[in-house]
Fold this protein.
Amino acid sequence: MAIIKIKNLRKVYKTHKREAGLFNAVKSLFVRHYETKHALKGISFEVQKGEIVGFIGPNGAGKSTTIKVISGVLFPTEGEVNVLGFTPWKDRVKYVENIGVVFGQKPQLVWDLPPIDSYHLNKDIYGIPEKVFNKRLNYMIKLLDIGDFIKTPARDLSLGERMKCKLVAAMLHNPKLVFLDEPTIGLDVIAKDKLRDFIKDTNKRYGTTFIITTHDMQDIERLCKRIIIINHGEIVYDGNLKHIKSKALSSKVLDVKLLESKDHFKLKGCRVLKVGKYGMKIKVDTNVTSIKKVMDYLVDNYDFADLTISDPPIEEIIKKIYEK
Ligand SMILES: Nc1ncnc2c1ncn2[C@@H]1O[C@H](COP(=O)(O)OP(=O)(O)OP(=O)(O)O)[C@@H](O)[C@H]1O
Ligand SMILES: [Mg+2]
């Protein structure tokens, strides 16, 4: 069942531009020069219930703009948006009961209050029954490990602590659909893991649908089966992450553990990435040389203890697509 239907969505920003300096500041009060920015050039996609979709693309591609429009924060210039049967910017009040939104870059908790107070506020706003509220809160406190600081005013929390608390605030009412705009920005490795586990767990347990934007490819690899890549306001890829991995790069990486030290690995279509006393790493262009040929060559010439074959890192693939 499609819970998000977007058709031909366009967003044009109109900003007024002025040169630096006091004279120009005064002048701009009388003469305004407008500049238009086509942030979204007619994008269309659907999202099914229970999906975790990675929305990725380079800086300025239009990711946040898309999230803002579909979460109802921003009007589009043109196009159709239907989310859970609502038109986000029209049915805003009813709509927000069904969604959760976290903007990694924006403060969203009440600054002077400890998160726990914000949570109680949300409880009242959304009319969450006491029992349900306590159960959910405890579950989230445990999973995100935030028990120690939910009584500290938000302004005194570290970036990562605040992010986790924000996520809880956005999800206490158990929304069907959650938009996360760079949720792992600035978090340490452990905090990132916790957050990802939380997203995965919630998705499994409640069938919650997630749309996530990120620049961290580990987020994508860990969470998303499907990715949508946007560049210059247009969707350049929408599909399976695995599929793009195999399609975009016809190469494999071989990690060989050697029993003897030996160099001079030379085979067409292969590049030695790293070589040490007890191992080497080789990149194979499978359009030129098959994996079987490489294996045969290794068996004939080397004594090795172990061998792993893997895909090149996702970062490399994405970079290639962005550059195109
Ligand atoms: N309020 C605004 N007024 C004018 N232009 C804007 C506004 N917000 C965004 N833009 C422009 O629209 C384009 C898309 O911006 P957007 O924030 O959606 O990008 P993004 O994909 O989220 O990038 P990033 O990865 O840097 O967060 C950019 O060129 C940006 O400068
Ligand atoms: Mg953004």
About this structure: The chain has a mean pLDDT of 90. Residues 63-64, 181 surround magnesium ion (ligand 2) (CB under 6 Å). The chain has two domains: 2-245, 250-323. The chain has eleven helices and 13 strands.
